[in-house]
Amino acid sequence: MKTSFDVIVIGAGVMGASIAAALVESGLDVALMEKGIGGGQGATRDTGGIVRGLELDPALRPLTRRDAHHGRTGIVHALFERSLKQTGVAYIASAEVCGLYLDAVGIEGTQNVELHASVKALDNGRFSAFCKDECLLIERNGGTVDARAAVSDLCRYISEKAIFLDHLAVDRCVELEGYVQVHAGKLRLDATWVVDASGADGPLPRPHGAVHARTIPFTRMGCDHAPSMPIIAHSLNTYLLPLGRNLMQVGGQRRHHAEHASQLNLSVMDNEQDVIERVARLGFGPQHSLAVVTQVAWDAYTDDGRPLIGRSSSGSHVYLATGFCGIGFKMAPSVAELLAFELSGLMAGVQLDADHRSIMKPFCPSRFTEVALS
After folding, report:
1. Which residues touch 36 (CB under 8 Å, ≥6 apart)?
2. How far apart are CA 165 and CA 167, in angstroms?
3. What would the pLDDT profile of 142-194 be if each residue is shown by its tens digit?
4. Hey, what domains does the chain have and what are their CATH numbers?
5. What are phi and psi of 342, to 5 degrees?
6. Is the whole model's pTM more than 0.85, yes or no?
7. Which of 130, 170, 176, 317 could form a disulfide with 283 if both were Cys (CB 3.0 to 4.6 A apart)?
């Protein structure tokens, strides 16, 4: 069996599978390792995916791009576009919040956005009686993506072109001079670079306090008629994700936090009642909806809301790609492209350009180390 690679990616969730596929496509010798099955853990396994480009944080906007950063889009972008159901995404918010979104996207971005002074334009005015004095933004090219289907396709591509080792947990990594040893049971693999994309459930040490685990509670509800598109309701800090004509998913707010996924309390708590109260305020009262099942997934998050993408420490050969706060599916194509560009350049001894460094700087893991030292 082959034991030496250019890059080993740990974790075959939506982010790890995307990064591995992009690295394979760029011509690197890659192994993807997963302790279970592809897409079988954390946020990728359980949560629905609302793909939207409107971001108030300017640093995150390059990560939600649907076009290419360098050259042309590749296999990851193509597979995600194939699994995208482009329904549009509706934002119900105050005029002030809508204005912030419009300011954030600029003149060019407004070509894909509709602004309405009220919510009457959404689903024949269904929400107008419950969302008075609120405006409506519709992001026309947004929608929902089947993240698990995309991950399955990505893992199949990797299996055909490179090495995909599932049901194999990584125990530890040992950094040596210019390369990394990856230990998994009795197996020892060597790689010039390792990418830790294992979310909140990773085996490798990370900067102290940088990445935490938290639960993602959600309730699937039967309803008289599901919304025609995903809805982000800002005043309620929740979402409605249509799953079918009479089924939708709604996020709960009672979360548990821990340092690692293994320490999380995965009980439902009172999230189902919380969701019932929230959707009632959007017009889905008991006569229009019924809670079917409440589940709890988990994700990796950071205190500043920005992921960690880059070397775990200065001079390290371990890269981090974690802390995506449960929405890595909408960032995966761009993150995969950007990391493949960077690692290919490092393998070839090519200097990274200023634009690339500017995009990646806000996500550097060392920002947490710097805070700790200050």
Report:
1. 166, 167
2. 7
3. 999 888 888 999 999 999 999 999 999 999 999 999 999 999 999 999 999 99
4. 4-81+146-210+304-373 (3.50.50.60), 87-141+211-298 (3.30.9.10)
5. -70, -50
6. yes
7. 130
